[in-house]
C-alpha cells in the first residue's frame, strides 16, 4: 500500500467512525432509562419507578406515553382493590350514618373506575393532555372526599387505602404533566 492509499484508508475509517458516532444513541440500560427519565421530577419518584417496573410491559416499552398508560392501569387496579374492600365493609354495616359515609366512598371510587380513569386513557391516546389531566384530577380528589366523610375519624385501614390511592393517582397526574412541558 502506498502512502496515498494509506491516507484514503484512514480517511474512510474516520468517516465510518463519525457515522457510527452520529447514530441516535440507544439508552445503555434500555427502556429502564426511559423510566428513570420520566420519573426524575415526579413528586413520588420511587413510587413512579417501582410502579412502572412492576408491569412486564415496561420491559419492552420506551415510549413515555405507553408508560403513562401503564401508570393509569396500575391506578385503576389500586382503585378497584379499594372499591372491593369498601363493598366488603359496607355489607357488614348496620348504622345508617356509617352506611352513608361508605356509600359516598363507593360512589366516588365507582365514578373513578367507570368514568374518569377510562376517559384519562382515551384522552392520552388522543394526545389531549389537558383533558387527560382534568379527568385524572377527579381521580386524585376521590380519596380525599371519601376521607372527609368521616370527619377526622376515618378507620385506620381505610385511611391507609385512601392514601395509597391518592399517591398513585397523584403520581400518575405528575407523569401526565410532563407531556405539557415537553
Ligand atoms: C377494575 O374493575 C373493573 C370492573 O370490575 C374491571 O372491568 C377492570 O378490568 C378492573 N381493572 C383492573 C386494572 O383491575
Ligand atoms: C380535548 O378534549 C376537550 C373535551 O372533550 C375538547 O373540548 C378539546 O377541544 C380537546 N382538545 C384538543 C386539543 O383536542
From TrEMBL:
Pfam families with a match to the protein in the record: PMEI
InterPro entries, A to Z: C/VIF1, Invertase/methylesterase_inhib, PCW_Enzyme_Inhibitor, Pectinesterase_inhib_dom
GO molecular function: pectinesterase inhibitor activity
Residues in the signal sequence: 1-22
Source organism superkingdom: Eukaryota
Keyword presence, Cell membrane: no
Every Pectinesterase inhibitor domain range: 30-175
Keywords assigned by UniProt, alphabetized: Disulfide bond, Signal
UniProt keyword Disulfide bond, yes or no: yes
Family named by the database record: Belongs to the PMEI family.
Name of the protein in its database record: Pectinesterase inhibitor domain-containing protein
Source organism per UniProt: Eutrema salsugineum (Saltwater cress)
